[in-house]
Amino acid sequence: MLNMAGVGFRMWAKALAKGRSSGLSALLSGCRAASGVSKGSLPGPYPKTPEERAAAAKKYNLTVQDYEPYPDNGEGFGDYPKLPDRSQQERDPWYQWDHPDLRRNWAEPMHWDFDMFIRNRVDTSPSPVPWSTMCKHLFGFIGFMLFMFYVGAKFPCYQPVAPKQYPYNDLYLERGGDPEKQPEEIKHYEI
Amino acid sequence: MADFSISKHGAMGAHLVRRYITERDTEPDPAKKYEFDPNFGFGERKEREMIATQEQMNLAQLPLEQRDYCAHYLLKLMKCKRDYWPNFLACKHERHDWDYCEHQDYVMRMKEYERERRLQLRKKRIEEKAEAA
Q1: CA distance B113 to B111
Q2: Which ipTM value was assigned to this complex?
Q3: How far is A90 from chain B (nearest CA, A)?
Q4: Which PANTHER family match (chain A) (predicted)?
Q5: Residues A183 and A169: beta-carbon distance below 8 Å
Q6: Which residue of A has its CA nearest to B50?
Q7: Omega of the bond prior to A43 within 30 degrees of 0, cis?
Q8: pLDDT over 70 percentage in chain A
Q9: Which DSSP string do the residues of A115-181 spell out, in sequence order?
Q10: Omega before residue A71 within 30° of 0, cis
Q11: Is A104 helix (H, G, I), strand (E, B) or coil?
Q12: Dihedral pair phi/psi, residue B95, rounded to 5°
């Protein structure tokens, strides 16, 4: 595991201190940044014994009662905890979170779909009006509008005027009529 | 039978009420062709005169909707606008002439509709009389 920033610093420090070129050993040893994963903190296989469960709960910063792993049915979750499917938007906006945008504290166990439940994305907060009411209002309105469009098509509105009269046999030639054929004579009169 | 009572006050849209509710069989249908002979009821009927020729309208590239019986006024207006551009206020007289011609055309359309409607009512009266007899 190579951390380039740590390696670079260390090489510079050593070169300054000793005044001779650092060898391969310096590159390989390197120093470790605090952002790396610590030993034993990665997820592991599904816990089968109570001791394994307790160890997994401690690893994920959960109490043993709260710790509930995903069911072991071959989906590959291992011992990752099953947290409730609640989006970050539902959390208290006034509490002083460590990460205010994510509404999460340091070392808090992350949901499997945490990147989905951020505030910019999926939101599970309750709607202000019951879902059934919202559905009724929306589909009622859409249904009413469709019905009115249908009625409007069946009984169209129009002005009480006769069709407009055009000269030259209703513009026979202009509308692409055959110049060889003689069109029917259409006469218009004044009224 | 049309009832000449106070309840017959019609505003805009009265023709729609007649067409769809009260007099469904006599009110003219805009989709259907008018069925009465144009000369019926007239002694001598004057034909509408078309002044602009087809060639003139073609050269001016008028759209089809504007090639009506007022096209000669429109051609005059277009020439005036072309000659007096950029003074867009210059052709009021020509524009008014064209507008008035279009207005008269629209009034004629209204009269044609009304004529058709009255002939339909008359036809219905005659039929009812024949049935009653």
Answers
A1: 5
A2: 0.87
A3: 54
A4: NADH DEHYDROGENASE [UBIQUINONE] 1 BETA SUBCOMPLEX SUBUNIT 8, MITOCHONDRIAL (PTHR12840:SF1), NADH-UBIQUINONE OXIDOREDUCTASE ASHI SUBUNIT (PTHR12840)
A5: yes
A6: A167
A7: no
A8: 84
A9: TTSSTTS---PPPSS-HHHHHHHHHHHHHHHHHHHHHHHHS----S-PPPP-HHHHHTTTTT--SSS
A10: no
A11: strand
A12: -65, -40
Cβ pairs A/B, distance under 8 A: 71
- Contact between chains at A166 and B68 (C-beta distance less than 8 A): yes
Are the beta carbons of A6 and A32 closer than 8 angstroms?
A: yes
From chain B, pick out residues whose CB is under 8 angstroms from the CB of A165. 48, 68-69, 105, 108-109
Alpha helix (H) ranges present in A19-61? 24-29, 50-59
Residues belonging to chain B: 133
This prediction's pTM: 0.67
Tokens 């144009």 found at: B38
Of the partner residues A162, A168, A175, the one whose CB lies closest to the CB of residue B34 = A162
Cβ atoms within 10 A of the Cβ of A2, count? 8
What is the phi/psi pair of residue B38, to 5°?
-60, -30
Angle between helices B92-132 and B71-84 (to 10 degrees): 160
Q: What per-residue confidence (pLDDT) applies to A27?
A: 53
Tokens of A100: 């205010």
The pLDDT tens digits for B19-45 are 999 999 999 998 899 999 999 999 999
Residue B9 pLDDT greater than 90, yes or no: no
What are residue A81's phi and psi, to 5 degrees?
Answer: -75, 150
Residue A130 token pair: 């019951």
pLDDT in tens, A110-157: 999 999 999 999 999 998 999 999 999 999 999 999 999 999 999 999
Question: Given the structure tokens 């001598």, which residue do they identify?
Answer: B44
Is the distance from CB of A39 to CB of A21 less than 8 angstroms?
A: no
Q: Which residue has the tokens 């729609």?
A: B16
